[in-house]
Design a protein that fits this description.
By secondary structure, this protein is mainly alpha-helical. It is built from three helices and no strands. The chain is flat, with a radius of gyration of 17 Å.
Length: about 100
């Protein structure tokens, strides 16, 4: 039988990993689009997932971040945001796929 305390702990753990699951879902959607030869959109989604991670790092308290909080707050924000913007910039310059002639 699950007690109230056990139920709170279980839902708290799910809430703790929900931001990471969101970021990974967006990145996975980008990878699927890349495999379907939608290079720009897929790469943009991967960069967007890093921007989402940076935004969540800014907005959420430390207890709710789970696996998004890897380093100090400022370091995470700068690295997630910078890499996300860089990937989106590269995605904007993609002109075609490997089979275009």
């Amino acid at each position: 039988m699950i007690t109230v305390t056990g139920r709170r702990r279980w839902t708290g753990e799910i809430g703790r990993y929900a931001p990471f699951a969101l970021v990974m879902a967006v990145a996975a959607a980008g990878v699927v689009l890349i495999f379907l030869y939608h290079w720009r959109i897929g790469s943009g989604l991967i960069g967007g997932s890093l921007l989402v991670a940076a935004g969540l790092r800014v907005l959420l308290p430390e207890q709710q971040l789970g696996l998004i909080a890897l380093r100090r707050k400022l370091t995470d924000i700068v690295l997630y945001g910078g890499l996300g913007l860089l990937i989106i910039l590269v995605a904007a310059t993609i002109t075609g796929g490997p089979f275009d002639q």
